[in-house]
């Protein structure tokens, strides 16, 4: 066992509209940290709708006109987004850019669009109108707009963690705005224990979870980015009508080389009822899901490793694994 006083090195910066914190345990990992940060920059340069020269912006500019030759990385992110769109039945839809660009939450000139603008934008949202060629991506209808914000950061996180693993033995935590991948084991032999942000109290944790075989924790919430104006709060995640709304969704699992077919953002958009349905189809996926009245629903597989830290939150069990149909993928 390594001495617990062994060096901890932290590299803090920004990436993809949030912070990027890379923590190395045991010995400095400067070259690995540099490669991880460069990978995030590359994904942002290619997939951000806020950059006029990105692949995503060029695809949207040519919507309904012609396919656009783009990088293999952008095509891969688009394929992952279509897989999630199909799995969630369109609750997650990468063509939501026609709507998100009206509000422009997180960018310049945030505003509240008119109901007429919103209704016109909704007509242009349909992931089935994305065509991915061998080297190109095409939005078939004029006025459509691509927004990969709900998946690009998670894609960068997964690939950066795989890159760190490939570069050699290391003990590292990569934290991109609260979405975390751990690489290797902690030198002192203890379990990785990660905190979950309280969705209604800044700088406060609502829960912690000790990882077992899992190595990835992704949290989405309506509080991450939002527009607050004239008494209206609009999250960057556009929600559908549902029986039990969620304000925070944390997904906990072990990476296996492919993206999950569902994201935390999709869980927020779909609500607890859809989450129950999706969990049944992905048996190895664990999670913590928090409703508007601060009920914390914890999946059974991690129930003994989760601690609720605040008195305002009540813990509820979320029992599942009763699905008798076909499970999805290898998760």
Automatic annotation (TrEMBL):
The organism sits in which domain of life? Bacteria
Residues making up the signal peptide according to the UniProt record: none
Question: Which cofactors, if any, are listed as required?
Answer: Mg(2+); Mn(2+)
Catalysed reactions listed for this entry: L-threonyl-[protein] + FAD = FMN-L-threonyl-[protein] + AMP + H(+)
For this protein, what does the record note about how its cofactor is bound?
A: Magnesium. Can also use manganese.
Please provide, alphabetically and separated by semicolons, the GO molecular function terms listed in this UniProt record: metal ion binding; transferase activity
Q: What class of enzyme is it?
A: transferase
Is this entry keyworded Signal? no
The EC number(s) given in the record are 2.7.1.180
Could you list this entry's UniProt keywords, alphabetically sorted.
FAD, Flavoprotein, Magnesium, Metal-binding, Transferase
What InterPro entries does this protein map onto? Answer: ApbE (IPR024932), ApbE-like_sf (IPR003374)
For binding Mg(2+), which residues are annotated in this chain's numbering? Answer: 150
* Keyword Nucleotide-binding included in the entry's annotation: no
Q: Which PANTHER family match?
A: FAD:PROTEIN FMN TRANSFERASE, THIAMINE BIOSYNTHESIS LIPOPROTEIN APBE
Stated family = Belongs to the ApbE family.
> Which protein is depicted?
FAD:protein FMN transferase
Species, as recorded: Dialister invisus DSM 15470
Q: What is the lineage of its organism?
A: Bacteria, Bacillati, Bacillota, Negativicutes, Veillonellales
């Amino acid at each position: 066992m390594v001495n617990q006083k062994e060096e901890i090195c932290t590299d803090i910066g920004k990436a993809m509209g949030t912070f990027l914190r890379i923590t190395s345990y045991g010995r400095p990992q400067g070259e690995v940290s540099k490669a991880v940060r460069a990978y995030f920059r590359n994904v942002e340069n290619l997939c951000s709708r806020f950059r006029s020269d990105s692949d995503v912006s060029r695809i949207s500019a040519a919507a309904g006109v012609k396919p656009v030759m783009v990088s293999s990385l952008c095509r891969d992110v688009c394929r992952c987004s279509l897989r999630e769109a199909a799995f969630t039945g369109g609750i997650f839809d990468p063509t939501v850019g026609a709507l998100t660009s009206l509000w422009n939450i997180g960018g310049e000139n945030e505003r509240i669009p008119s109901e007429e603008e919103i209704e016109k934008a909704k007509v242009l949202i349909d992931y089935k109108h994305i065509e991915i060629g061998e080297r190109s991506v095409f939005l078939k209808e004029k006025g459509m707009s691509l927004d990969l914000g709900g998946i690009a950061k998670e894609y960068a996180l997964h690939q950066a963690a795989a890159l760190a693993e490939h570069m050699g033995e290391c003990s590292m935590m990569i934290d991109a705005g609260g979405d975390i991948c751990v690489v290797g084991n902690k030198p002192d032999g203890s379990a990785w224990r990660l905190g979950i942000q309280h969705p209604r109290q800044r700088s406060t944790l609502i829960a912690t979870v000790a990882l077992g075989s899992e190595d990835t924790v992704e949290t989405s919430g309506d509080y991450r980015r939002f527009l607050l104006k004239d008494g209206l709060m609009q999250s960057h995640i556009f929600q559908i009508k549902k029986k039990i709304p969620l304000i925070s969704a944390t997904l906990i699992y072990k990476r296996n080389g492919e993206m999950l077919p569902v994201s935390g953002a999709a869980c927020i958009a779909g609500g607890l009822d859809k989450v129950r349905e999706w969990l049944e189809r992905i048996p190895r996926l664990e999670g913590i899901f928090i409703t508007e009245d601060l009920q914390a629903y914890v999946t059974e597989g991690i129930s003994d490793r989760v601690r609720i830290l605040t008195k305002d939150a009540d813990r509820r069990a979320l029992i599942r694994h009763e699905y008798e149909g076909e499970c999805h993928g290898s998760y």
